[in-house]
Amino acid sequence: MPVKIRLARIGRKKVPFHRIVAIDSRKKRDGQFLDDLGTYNALRGELVTFHEDRLQDWISKGAVMTDTVKRIRKQYKKQTEQPTKKVVTKAAPKEEKKSDAVA
Predict the structure, then answer these.
(1) 5, exposed or middle or buried, with CB in 10 Å at 0-12, 13-18, 19+?
(2) Quick one: what percent of the chain has pLDDT higher than 70?
(3) Domain boundaries, the chain
(4) What is the tens place of the pLDDT at every residue in 32-56?
(5) CATH number for the domain formed by residue range(s) 3-80
(6) Most buried one in 12, 47, 48, 84, CB count within 10 A?
């Protein structure tokens, strides 16, 4: 059974909203799926939910991702990645201490 990881539309007319699913490639776009891997709001271009661990499990079993799902996964990795910026702070100028000693 060839399994694909692709999008299934669940949004209404002119409001695209998709479910990321693992499905038999011979089934219809919105047909019965094997596993729900997340949801994607296409109108805003954002991931609502994403289950990376289950996606990896299906890939290890031989499932093939579509190009769109690859792009969405790349977007997810970019969002979750914490950039390590080197913060450089300037030191305040040192003030000279005046001595209180009387000569």
Answers:
(1) buried
(2) 78
(3) 3-80
(4) 889 999 999 988 888 888 899 999 9
(5) 3.30.1320.10
(6) 47
